[in-house]
Amino acid sequence: MTMYQKSISLTFLLFFISSIFIMGFSQNTQKGQRVAVFKNGTGFFFNPMILKAEKDGEQKGKFIIKSLPQALFGTFWFYTNGKPISSLKSYVSEEKNDSKKVSNLSEMLYANIEKNVEIILKYDLKNQVVGKIQNVNLQNEMLFLATTKPKVGFMVITMSDIQSISFPKQPNTDYYPLQNQRIIEVEIDKATSQENVEMAYLQRGIGWLPSYLVNLKDDKKAQIVLRAELVNDAEDIKDATLSLVVGVPNFKYDKLVSPFVSNQSLESFLNQLNGSTGDLRRGRQQMVMSNAITAQSMAYESMDMDLDTYGGGGDTDELETQSQEDLFFYTKKGVTLPKGGRALYSLFNEEVDYKHIYEVELTQNNARHVVYKQEDEQRNDVYHSLELQNSTSFPWTTGTAMVTQPRKTKEGAVSTTSDPQVLSQDMLKYTAKTSKSMLRLTIAPDIMVKDNEQETARETNIKKKRIVYDLITATATIEVKNYKNKEVSLKISRTVIGEMLKTNSEWESKKRPNYYAINPVNDVVWELKLNKGESKTITYSYQFYVRR
Question: What predicted TM-score, i.e. pTM, was given to this entire model?
Answer without folding.
Answer: 0.67
